[in-house]
From TrEMBL:
Keyword Acetylation recorded: no
InterPro entries: AB_hydrolase_fold, Dienelactn_hydro, FrsA_esterase
Chain ranges passing through the membrane: none
Domain (Dienelactone hydrolase): residue spans on this chain: 41-260
Keyword Hydrolase recorded: yes
Leader sequence segment: 1-20
GO molecular function, one term: hydrolase activity
PANTHER family tied to this protein: DIENELACTONE HYDROLASE DOMAIN-CONTAINING PROTEIN, DIENELACTONE HYDROLASE DOMAIN-CONTAINING PROTEIN-RELATED
Pfam families xref list: DLH
UniProt-recorded name of the protein: Dienelactone hydrolase
Keywords assigned by UniProt, alphabetized: Hydrolase, Signal
Length: 264
């Protein structure tokens, strides 16, 4: 009898585990009068409040790559919110349109901040999220966005940028103004990021007494975490290339970074 009970309990546990899964929930929210279409991604195996991460995509907009990245963060115990930076879920399939969309955000820091903050607020109010433990991660264009938000003193515990663009458009932060700990994970051979941009970033963060770390991966270029990057690079004659080794190493660094600063 006892064996049968144990077996039944094990079967229930297996079924419960099988039913628990990473959920992707479309979320419509607003920035003023602009309709935004993001996604909340989380593992419903846990009912506890969990840390949140605002995710800002590459200049293409919300693609399969950012969905895959969000699922990985959900599996690590976070609620990931994929931010819509362009409104109405707009995406681009070519560099001209992607540049126009990303430029429309970056040329106006107020728009950039409003779009990011709208996503932050939407994530913070989710029942499954601990609003006191929210970080951000960005890719390429998105990396510039999250670094700008850190410079602007956003209420973030931790910010990471993968192959982050460093064309930053917010004023140099005052001493003590940067709340977030910062991790920049870039390709050492990324032609889109100039050495003088690193120098300016370091100068500003040092003067602000910010807690930051920069890791550059030898041989890696732009978009090295995106498995679609190599094909996109060939298609549009751009220096984009997936790098499995750099991707794995950078993801391991980011996992340690967020665990130390969001899950403590």
């Amino acid at each position: 009898m006892r064996t049968n009970i144990v077996g039944a309990l094990c079967a229930v546990a297996v079924i419960a585990s099988a039913n628990a899964a990473v959920k992707e929930q479309p979320v419509t929210y607003t920035d003023g009068e602009t309709t935004m279409k993001g996604f909340l991604v989380y593992d419903d195996a846990s009912q506890a409040k969990r840390p949140g991460i605002v995710m800002v995509p590459e200049w293409w907009g919300i693609t399969d790559h950012i969905h895959n990245e969000a699922r990985k963060f959900a599996q690590q115990g976070y609620a990931a919110f994929i931010a819509d930076m362009y409104g109405d879920g707009k995406t681009a399939d070519n560099p001209k349109d992607a540049g126009a969309l990303s430029g429309s955000v970056m040329k106006n820091p107020k728009v950039m901040e409003q779009r990011f903050n709208a996503a932050w607020q939407e994530l913070a109010k989710q029942a499954s999220v601990n609003p006191g433990r929210i970080g951000a991660v960005g890719y390429c264009f998105g990396g510039a966005v999250v670094l700008n938000m850190a410079r602007a003193g956003a209420d973030l515990a931790a910010v990471a940028g993968f192959h982050a663009s460093l064309g930053l458009n917010t004023p140099a932060p005052a001493p003590g103004a940067v709340k977030a700990k910062i991790l920049i994970l870039n390709g050492a051979d990324d032609p889109f990021v100039k050495r003088e941009q690193y120098d300016a970033l370091k100068k500003d963060f040092d003067a602000a007494k910010a807690d930051y770390r920069i890791i550059e991966y030898p041989g890696a270029v732009h978009a090295f975490t995106n498995p679609e990057a190599t094909e996109l690079g060939k298609k549009f004659n751009l220096p984009l290339r997936y790098d499995a080794k750099a991707d794995q190493e950078a993801k391991a660094e980011a996992a340690k970074f967020f665990a130390a600063n969001l899950q403590k």
